[in-house]
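User: Can you predict the 3D structure for this chain?
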Amino acid sequence: MDAGALGHAIRASPGVATVLTLAGVTKHYGEVPALRGVDLEVHSGELLTLLGPSGSGKTTLLKVIAGFEIAEGGVVSLAGRDITTLAPNRRDIGMVFQNYALFPHMSVAANIAFPLNIRKVPKQDITRQVMDALQLVGLAGYGERLPRQLSGGQQQRVALARAVVFQPRLLLLDEPFGALDRKLREQMQLEVRRLQQRLGITTIFVTHDQEEALVLSDRIAVMSDGVIEQLGDPRAIYASPVNRFVADFIGESNLLRARTDATGATAVLDSGATVELPERRSVNAEVGLLIRPEAIELARAPANAEGFAGTVEEVVYLGSTLKYFVRLESGAAVIARRSFGQQPVFAAGERVVASWSSADVHVVQW
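Assistant: Here is the predicted structure, written as structure tokens:
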């Protein structure tokens, strides 16, 4: 079986529209709840990211799926089979750990062959499948090397090859790029995504990096305090967060507290300034107004110009963009992003007027 055949074997393995189902999964560490009745369905062939800050429950959830932790309540099903209490080696799941977990005394080929040996695959098949896996991750000819003789990116590829060589039904990736520098991390993100799509393997990826999640995912499950706050595709998660936590956690945002007026068409900020809403909301309700930095326009204009007058407090150069921190006269602070070279350019201490379209205002639960 060549590398292409390995991909075909994974895609062609028996499957259902929903590969993994979690129903009411709970887990405690002592008195502290780590998972609070998590429900989740993972679709065949998709890459779903569990995203959240430290302590949100994402790694615990991954361990429960892998079998390294056992759920106290609820059910974990893989392709319709209850695996809640099965041992990890009986779950038909491949996993790449944050530290790669390669055996330092074993060659690259022996590391990749390990899950095949555990499954008592015939020796002649093991040799062929290991060679296929090495070719698949671009490491043909590296089989006799030891892990310490490889770069971090190459070790990452070995860990991936080991995780997919036995054609698992599900692949789990636990913050696999954490030890890599930024440039290599971005390169590996694209490589993993291409490999996942080529194999058609259902994948769950864990990260705390919002940008990484947006780049890699078909869908994102944003977690906080042991629950999934929002589940959706990257564009929906970024553009339409359901609450204050998701709005604040995903991407950079301006989040202003306000209360809708008696018409529901306008919101009044704490300062008394009013903001037009894109659509009518419940009247006299406390809300959060999300405005992304790229949606805020800055201009030099008279004090009576339409918008919110303020002062530039800080300018940060980010290569392709400039980030402006602006203190509005109302007291609120906002961040605006503009492409570098876009005119005009403002300096710290300069008076400006900030404005945005009502279509760029997204209302979230406060």
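DSSP finds nine helices and 20 strands in the chain. The CA atoms of residues 50 and 58 lie 6 Å apart.
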